[in-house]
């Protein structure tokens, strides 16, 4: 070890506090980077496992594969692995309440199918032989057939046959009622050994006519084990679920097109959402798919999650976020560690001058600083990397422990060696860039400058004049503090800049995460209830009475009852943006009548909704939901994106004239509904054509707007593009008071619905059906109950996963910001202890000393926040503009919560650090502090 290295090591040992502070900064920067890459890796792995559980562990499903063709899939070099299922047929279910789903669809598979298919067992076990069977949970919740584990069932299994087309109907085709029958039935007896969740869309289409029952197949097991050849089973039809290799995933469209025998370029174009096809190409594509060798289903989400390169879909956003955060961590860490080195260089100026005076070259001085950085890195990087991994593991374990019982799956901890190596390289780069500037500065020091040690202090008498108010408020301590700030501008600027960077970073990242959640929320409609009820009756229903029924059942945590009425508004007052959107859809015409849906809520739900929306005097009219999300074509990105926009110019107190029709034959036709133009010529986007409006007796009524909001009541999150108005029963009935409308709406014109958040959805559904069936008061009402418990839990799981990642990153950024502030302020105070001791030695009292420190705290806080907060808002706004141009459009809203939290934390942190440092300095021996050359 040469002399310079020995001297560097000795200095590190002598200045233990500063060494420890710098090492902590390095550890934190490395820990944050390793935690970031570990969180990203864990998030990706968790999403992959979630999608496998939800839809199955496969990339492409091929239906209609002959047994003799199975070897083509097994030997295909682009296919990593397969599992197969065999359709045994359909059996009629006696007592099924769902008229559109009257069958059991019996499917057979083997161990590989049970393991990799989306068969999530909730009770019992999987089938192990051909006499055992597993049934789905929604057979009970949707079909209302209660079969338990251990029951024996007999099924007459056959083929669905369409007599009108004289053809067999496949499994995922909707039930055709009178047109179909079961043929070639075979009676089979099974023992129920398990109950599973409803299989995913890839295995049971939501329009399918049968509930999926799964049994075991000895044939498939024998083929997989190699004890039986598939050659002699040419007539047996299978469904093959295939996993592609990573290389094949990058060209998945070409690989799939080759297997099913269609044009590769046309297939790739049709499956690329960013490319628009011509009408001729679309026709040709559909013809080719009709003649394709197999029907297919593509597990797009799993492919998107696994196909990292090229980055696609969800993970394009994820890796963009991770890259932005990594850059922020690096930049902030560079500044934090650079501060430590700069402060160290400043205090060792005399030492470097002495070294230069005895012959040390600039290169040797630079090498000394870089050696110091390397020594600190050797300690900090390994500890930081392990700390980041441990922090990520603890976070995952804590989330899993807290969410046990309500989260639909467990978060997975996963580390990636390449990602960790990348984190270490970035950490080394962070330390290198931090030390380089300081080394260059140290090398420039001349012996004369070092002896005088005045380079850091710039004195201009005109700028040292102190305002009189500072002396009156803070006394001599404040005056000294003010002059000191003016004399040592570089140190003061370093401290302020450090806090500004941390504040801006926190505000921008907080906004970035909230914007990401908004975009996810626009893409995936959230289900915030687990029981949905549709009611129909030939007479008007009392929604308050229905509310009493639903709330009276044990386990109802929240509920809402609504009666919906369709109206149309002629030439509503569109906003410019929404008017242009409507004009683009309908041949540049903004004069098309717009459909409005008025929902009358039960009093309790309406009052809660009005309170949440911040609308007072809501009883005087209707609440208008004036914001909606649409699919808009973005010419710059050449694809459709979700865009949120305000709809109308209406404000509280305005009146909307709503129209509806009364048809002459309404009384004789129970399905003819006043205002319910959807039953005739209304299109799916809510527009009503003139022929429908003019059909029948035209009526209008004026609805007063009580308030405008962008919120919707609980359970109405998935209502799409329909313009929504909400009223209570009293307000709605007042529209007809004193003959205002000239007539009354006729019975049967409303659509009644209710939504319940139940503690136990299955028990609630059972109790509700029992009470409505036994009570003659409800005999005239038809109740259609949907149990959406699994869907609600799945969506909660997805948003929880996103939340853990998003808020984990915010905590990461907050930690590095707080540490940076603590490091900068505490080190600065520690290194100024000689200056403070000198002031106390010439008579400065404790009160004056406290005043001086408090004034510095005020100056630092105010200046940092005055610069940092507006800069954070500006950058977050620019970020919103950039994201809108690239891949979406949302309305900018400043991150008020993050701004307030930032201001409070900065003020409290600076005050606490200054106070603690001041207390510590008071106890230092004045003479020993002045003599200490290591400060």
Automatic annotation (TrEMBL):
Major place of residence: membrane
Pfam families for the chain: FtsX, MacB_PCD
Signal sequence bounds: none
InterPro entries: ABC3_permease_C, MacB_PCD, Macrolide_Exporter_MacB
Location(s), subcellular: Cell membrane
Keyword entries, A-Z: Cell membrane, Membrane, Transmembrane, Transmembrane helix
Cellular compartments per GO CC: plasma membrane
GO terms assigned for molecular function: transmembrane transporter activity
Transmembrane segments: 317-337, 373-396, 416-435, 496-520, 798-822, 864-884, 896-914
Residues in MacB-like periplasmic core domain copies: 19-217
Topological relation to the membrane, as annotated: Multi-pass membrane protein
Domain ABC3 transporter permease C-terminal positions: 324-447, 809-925
Family named by the database record: Belongs to the ABC-4 integral membrane protein family.
Record's protein name: Peptide ABC transporter permease
Organism in which the protein naturally occurs: Agathobacter rectalis
């Amino acid at each position: 070890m040469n002399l310079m290295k020995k001297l560097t090591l000795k200095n590190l040992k002598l200045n233990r506090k500063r060494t420890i502070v710098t090492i902590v900064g390095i550890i934190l920067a490395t820990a944050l980077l390793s935690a970031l890459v570990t969180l990203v890796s864990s998030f990706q792995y968790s999403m992959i496992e979630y999608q496998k559980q939800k839809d199955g562990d496969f990339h492409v499903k091929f239906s209609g594969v002959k047994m003799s063709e199975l070897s083509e899939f097994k030997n295909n070099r682009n296919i990593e692995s397969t599992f197969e299922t065999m359709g045994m047929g359909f059996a009629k279910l006696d007592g099924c309440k769902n008229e559109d789903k009257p069958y059991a669809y019996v499917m057979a598979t083997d161990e590989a199918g049970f393991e990799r298919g989306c068969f999530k067992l909730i009770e019992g076990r999987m089938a192990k032989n051909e006499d055992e069977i597993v049934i789905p949970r929604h057979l009970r919740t949707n079909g209302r057939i209660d079969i338990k584990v251990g029951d024996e069932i007999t099924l007459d299994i056959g083929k669905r046959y369409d007599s009108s087309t004289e053809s067999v109907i496949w499994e995922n085709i909707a039930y055709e009622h009178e047109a179909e029958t079961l043929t070639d039935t075979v009676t089979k007896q099974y023992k129920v050994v398990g109950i599973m969740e409803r299989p995913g869309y890839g295995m049971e289409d939501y329009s399918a006519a049968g509930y999926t029952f799964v049994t075991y197949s000895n044939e498939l097991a024998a083929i997989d084990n190699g004890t039986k050849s598939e050659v002699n089973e040419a007539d047996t039809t299978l469904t093959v679920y295939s996993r592609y290799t990573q290389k094949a995933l990058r060209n998945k469209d070409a690989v799939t097109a080759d297997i099913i025998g269609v044009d590769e370029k046309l297939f790739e174009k049709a499956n690329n959402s960013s490319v628009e096809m011509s009408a001729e190409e679309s026709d040709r594509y559909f013809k080719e798919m009709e003649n394709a060798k197999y029907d297919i289903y593509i597990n797009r989400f799993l492919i998107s999650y696994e196909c990292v390169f090229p980055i696609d879909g969800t993970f394009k956003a994820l890796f963009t976020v991770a890259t932005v955060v990594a850059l922020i961590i690096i930049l902030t860490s560079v500044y934090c560690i650079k501060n430590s080195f700069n402060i160290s260089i400043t205090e060792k100026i005399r030492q470097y001058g002495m070294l230069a005076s005895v012959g040390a070259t600039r290169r040797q001085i630079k090498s000394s600083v870089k050696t110091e950085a390397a020594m600190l890195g050797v300690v900090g990087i390994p500890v930081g990397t392990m700390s980041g991994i441990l922090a990520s593991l603890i976070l995952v374990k804590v989330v899993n422990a807290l969410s046990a019982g309500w989260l639909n799956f467990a978060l997975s901890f996963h580390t990636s060696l390449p990602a960790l190596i990348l984190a270490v390289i970035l950490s080394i780069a962070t330390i290198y860039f931090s030390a380089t500037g300081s080394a260059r500065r140290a090398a420039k020091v001349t012996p004369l400058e070092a002896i005088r040690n005045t380079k850091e202090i710039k004195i201009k008498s005109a700028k040292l004049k102190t305002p009189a108010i500072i002396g009156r408020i803070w006394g001599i301590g404040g005056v000294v503090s003010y002059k000191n700030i003016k004399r040592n501008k570089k140190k003061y600027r370093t401290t302020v800049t450090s806090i500004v960077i941390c504040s801006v970073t926190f505000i921008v990242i907080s906004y970035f995460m909230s914007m990401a959640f908004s975009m996810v929320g626009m893409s995936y409609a959230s289900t915030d209830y687990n029981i949905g009820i549709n009611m129909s009756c030939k007479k008007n229903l009392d929604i308050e009475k229905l509310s009493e029924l639903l709330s009276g059942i044990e386990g109802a945590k929240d509920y809402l009852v609504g009666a919906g009425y369709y109206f149309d508004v002629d030439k509503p007052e569109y906003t410019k943006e929404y008017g242009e959107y409507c004009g683009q859809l309908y041949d540049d015409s903004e004069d098309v009548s717009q459909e409005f849906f008025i929902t009358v809520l039960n009093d309790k739900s309406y009052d809660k909704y009005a309170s949440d929306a911040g609308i007072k005097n809501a009883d005087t009219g209707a609440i208008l939901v004036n914001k909606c999300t649409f699919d808009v074509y973005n010419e710059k990105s050449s694809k459709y994106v979700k865009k949120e926009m305000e709809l109308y110019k209406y404000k509280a107190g305005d009146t909307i004239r709503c129209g509806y029709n009364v048809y002459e034959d309404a009384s004789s036709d129970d399905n003819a509904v006043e205002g319910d133009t959807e039953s005739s010529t209304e299109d799916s986007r809510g527009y009503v054509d003139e022929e429908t409006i003019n059909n029948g007796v035209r009526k209008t009524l004026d609805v007063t707007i009580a308030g405008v909001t962008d919120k919707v009541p609980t359970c109405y999150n998935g209502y799409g593009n329909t313009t929504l108005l909400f009223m209570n029963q009293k307000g709605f009935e007042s529209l007809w008071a004193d003959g205002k409308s000239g007539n009354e709406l006729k019975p049967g014109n409303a659509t009644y619905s209710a939504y319940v958040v139940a503690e136990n959805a299955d028990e609630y559904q059972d109790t509700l059906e029992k009470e409505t069936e036994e009570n003659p008061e409800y005999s005239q009402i038809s109740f259609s109950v949907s149990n959406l418990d699994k869907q609600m839990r799945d969506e909660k799981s997805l948003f929880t996963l996103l939340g853990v990642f998003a808020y984990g990153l915010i905590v990461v950024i907050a930690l590095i910001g707080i540490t940076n502030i603590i490091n900068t302020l505490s080190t600065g105070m520690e290194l100024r202890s000689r200056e403070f001791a000198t002031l106390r030695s010439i008579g400065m009292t404790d009160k004056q000393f406290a005043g001086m420190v408090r004034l510095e705290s005020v100056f630092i806080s105010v200046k940092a926040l005055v610069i940092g907060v507006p800069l954070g808002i500006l950058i977050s706004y620019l970020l919103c503009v950039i994201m809108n141009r690239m891949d979406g459009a949302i309305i900018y809203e400043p991150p008020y919560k993050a701004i307030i939290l930032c201001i409070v934390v900065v003020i409290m942190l600076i005050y606490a650090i200054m106070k603690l440092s001041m207390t510590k300095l008071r106890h230092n021996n004045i003479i020993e502090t002045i003599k200490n050359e290591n400060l």
